[in-house]
Amino acid sequence: MMNLVWLRSDLRIYDNPALFNAMAQGATIAVYCLSNKQWDRHGLAPIKRRLIVDHLIELEEQLSQLNVPLIVLDCDVFSNVPQQLKELCVEQSITHLYYNHEYEVNEQRYTEETVRVLAGFNIEAKGYHDQCIVPPGAVLNGSGECYKVFSAFAKNWMANITTLARPLYSKPVAQQTIDCSSNIQCLKANLIDVDIDTQQQWPTGEDEAHDRLNDFIDEDVSQYHTQRDFPDLDATSHLSVYLALGTLTTRQCLQGLLSSEQQTIELLSEVQGEGKLCWLNELVWRDFYRHILVAFPKVSMSKPFKDITDLLPWKGNNQDFESWCAGKTGVPIVDAAMRQLNTTGWMHNRLRMVVAMFLTKHLQIDWRLGEAYFYSRLADADLASNNGGWQWSASTGVDAVPYFRIFNPYRQAERFDPKGDFVRKYVKELAAIQGKAIHQPSKQVANQFSYPVPIVDLKLAAEHTKALFKGLSA
After folding, report:
1. For a 10 Å CB count at each end of the chain, is N or C smaller?
2. CA distances from 437 to 323, 395, 408 (A)
3. Measured on CA atoms in the order 361, 367, 371, 372, is the torsion positive or negative?
4. For the whole model, what pTM was predicted?
5. Span 131-167+206-295: which CATH code?
6. pLDDT digits (tens, 9 = 90+) for 222-232
7. 367 is catalytic
8. Does the annotation mark 324 as catalytic?
9. 87: annotated active-site residue
10. Architecture of domain 307-472
11. Catalytic annotation on 202?
C-alpha cells in the first residue's frame, strides 16, 4: 500500500487529519499542486503566494524528518490537477489519496473531479475536515438548514461542541525511508519578490505560529475585549496569516484557550474571562463563514447572500475607487488603514469594517471591487472570511449589519485612535498635527500639508445610501 496526501491550505504536520491518517495506514508521499495561472485568475495577493512557497519549503524540511517526500507539481490551473495527480499516482503505485476539504466552489469541483478520475484507476480517496472546529453541515436549525443568524448558530455550536468538534491530531510517527525524493527546486524557482519583509512580519513555520498563539494566550487574551478595536495597540492575535496558510488550525487555537484554563473541551462553557470569551467568539465566526460558504455556494461566486441587493445601483471602478485604493480619500483614518494594507499586507480588523463601509455606504461602490482589492493585497487572504466581512459591511450578506447603521469614520477614529497615533504613523503628511485634530483637518490645514480634501460629503452620502436600501423593500 502506498498513500498520497494532497496538501493545499494545510501546510503543517501537527493536527493534519489527512497526513495523520495516511501515515497511520501505510507508506506516504505528499504532493502540492502549484496553480499560478489559477491564482492569477483569482487575483491572489503576491505576498500570500510568497508566503505559501516559503512555508512549503519549511514544510518540506519538517516532512523529511518524518521520511515523507514532498512532490511539487506545476499544474498552472485547477483543471489540470486531476490528470497530473493521476499520472503521479500511477507512477508511484498509489493506492489511496488522502486530503483535507476545501470549501470554495472551484476547489470543491476540481476535488470531486480528481476523486472521480482516480476512482477509475481503483485509487480510493478519503477526505477530512480540518478548517473548522465543527465541520460544515453539523450545526443546523430546527428545519435541518444552515443558520443564517450568527447568534443562533453560536448558541447551537456551544451547546453541542462536545459531540460535534472534530478531534485534535498529534504529530505523525516517522515512517521508514521510501524510494522517492522531494523536488523543492521547483518551489525555489517560484519564489516571488515582494516589497514587504515577510520573514520579519510573519516568520515561517508551525513553531512560529504556535509561539504566537501561546504568547497571545499568556499575555494578551485577557484584555482582548477592551483592546482589540484600537489599531495602534498590538492587541490582536496576529494569527490570521497562519490560519489562512493552514500552518495553524482553529482547533489548535481552541485547545490553546482550553489549556490556559486547564480544561477539556467538555468544559468549554466554563471558560472564564471576557477577553477569552470574546476571542472564542471570533473562532466561532470563522466557523460560521465557512458553514455559509458550503450551504450557500453563491457567495463564493460573486453573488450577494441577499439577492435583492444586487438591484442596488452600485458604482464601478472610478476615480473615487482609485483614491480609496491608494489611501487618498481625504478621510485620514480610511487613508491610514488603506496605506497599512498597501505597505504591510495586513489591516486591523476594526479598520477593515471602517474602510469597507466607507467604500460601499459613502462612495456607493460595488462591494465586490473592495473584496477583490483586499484579496489582491492581504497576506491572510481567505475567501470565506474576506467575503463574509465585506458582505456584512455592505449589508448584502448573511446576518449583515442593518443598512441604516453606517460607521462614521471620523467618530470611529476619535473613539479607537483617540490620540491619532495610528493615523500619524501611516498618513505621514499630517504627522505634525497634534492630538485628535488629525482626524478631520480643515481644508486650509489639508492644503497646507498637501493632503486631499474629502472626496465625499459623509452625511449626504449616508442619507442617499439609506434611501437606496429602503427603496428595495418599498
Report:
1. C
2. 22, 31, 16
3. negative
4. 0.95
5. 1.25.40.80
6. 999 999 999 99
7. yes
8. no
9. no
10. Orthogonal Bundle (1.10)
11. no
